[in-house]
Amino acid sequence: MATQHPFDLLDVERELNAEQKAIQAVTRQYVNDRIKPNIAHWYETTEIPVRELARELGEIGLLGMHLDGYGCAGTDATSYGLACMELEAGDSGLRSLVSVQGSLAMFAIHAYGSEETKSEWLPKMATGEAIGCFGLTEADHGSNPAGMITTAKKVGGDWIINGSKMWITNGNVADVAIVWARTDEGVRGFCVPTSTPGFSANLIKHKLSLRASMTAELVFENMRVPDSSRLPGATSLRAPLTCLAEARFGIIFGAVGAARDCLESSLAYASTREQFEGPISRHQITQEKFAKMATRLNTAALLALHLGKIKDEHKITPQQISMGKFNNVQGAIEIAREARSILGAAGITTEYPIFRHMTNLESVLTYEGTHEIHALVIGEALTGIAAFR
Ligand SMILES: Cc1cc2nc3c(=O)[nH]c(=O)nc-3n(C[C@H](O)[C@H](O)[C@H](O)COP(=O)(O)OP(=O)(O)OC[C@H]3O[C@@H](n4cnc5c(N)ncnc54)[C@H](O)[C@@H]3O)c2cc1C
Hints:
It holds the Pfam family Acyl-CoA_dh_1. Its cofactor is FAD. α4 runs antiparallel to α8 and α7 runs antiparallel to α8 (about 285-310). The chain has helices spanning about 20-35, 40-45, 50-60, 75-90, 90-110, 115-125, 240-270, 285-310, 320-340, 355-365, 370-385, and strands at about 130-135, 150-155, 160-170, 175-185, 185-195, 200-205, 215-225. It folds into 3 domains: about 5-125, Acyl-CoA dehydrogenase/oxidase, N-terminal domain (Butyryl-Coa Dehydrogenase, subunit A, domain 1, Orthogonal Bundle), CATH 1.10.540; about 130-230, Beta Barrel (Butyryl-CoA Dehydrogenase, subunit A, domain 2), CATH 2.40.110; about 240-385, Up-down Bundle (Butyryl-CoA Dehydrogenase, subunit A, domain 3), CATH 1.20.140.10. It has a 4-stranded antiparallel β-sheet with strand order 2-3-7-6, covered by helices on one side. A hairpin with a 2-residue loop joins β4 (about 175-185) and β5. The protein has about 400 residues and is an alpha+beta fold. About 50% of the residues lie in helices and about 15% in strands. The structure holds flavin-adenine dinucleotide (FAD). The site of flavin-adenine dinucleotide has 20 residues, from β1, β3, α10 and α11.
């Protein structure tokens, strides 16, 4: 009997328009041709050609693609989400590169930067000529960034920044860093070229997750920057939190891509792997696993597309984004674990993508607001009680 693609079961893509489908197809082609043949090697060696990839992603138009002007493609939010889905089907590290560049660093400049900063950085970030990073988290202040101790002190027309940031994606390869610091007036953001004296970055080694993505500590020692590097529109912690909401939106779709790749891999494997004189896909327990995975995957995809529509109407709320990440990342992890079991021993190697996705998704569960913090956001919406403290 003919088989159906998991997404065909609920006709998930029925509402996509031609442009959205085209963007998804181009991204999928790039991932199939360029990423899938190389990703296992990059993951094992942790030597990922970030600069080369950034240029290629820029050429396809995926960097800052949902922003308007300054060389950005200006697509709708759903198209951006679909691109994230395809990128993360390749690897969460690739989607992280695009998320951090477009939704965190470029979005911060686009939303809060001066005209001068926007014109200077956005066009070359859109092409991938310049790479950006976003420094909010500190070693002792992760879930609660309001406690940050990095300071920026006004000295004449300049600012002197001291402190450090931890777990910063692409921090060691970036040309420009968005640095969030405490000032006498509250939290402010600065757009800092990484060549600025006093700036240094240390690569974080020994990661067992997101190995095909660079993560670094940023250190600022009496780093002097002019007032023009400040993002004038960013006047409180609300500014970086708004950037994070943008990136989380991409994760809602991205997690679906990683999960889809796990399901597809396990389906392909089970149809050719034979035990007890027949393919393992004929066993009822295996089929029940597929049924659960496909249902979880379809509902996650529909949730992502639903939220995409709301975002395209500019009506999305932080609570809705929290619910999307809360559901879809947890669902993707469950799918990855189930898919891995279908591959038996073969499932623990990098020959198949599943274990790689599974370990990546552990980081995705934690960054951009942990699973627990998103639960509390939803809990607060339901009860009216903020349970963060
Ligand atoms: C690979 C990777 C890349 C990253 N990239 C970036 C980046 O580019 N820029 C950046 O700024 N940050 C980045 N981060 C940091 C990320 O955002 C933080 O790791 C995250 O916010 C959690 O902070 P933490 O790790 O310090 O955990 P903690 O805040 O110490 O949390 C530990 C545990 O306690 C729980 N917890 C904390 N508070 C509460 C509470 N009130 N109620 C219930 N549970 C609670 C958490 O949910 C979690 O389970 C990255 C992280 C990773 C792993």
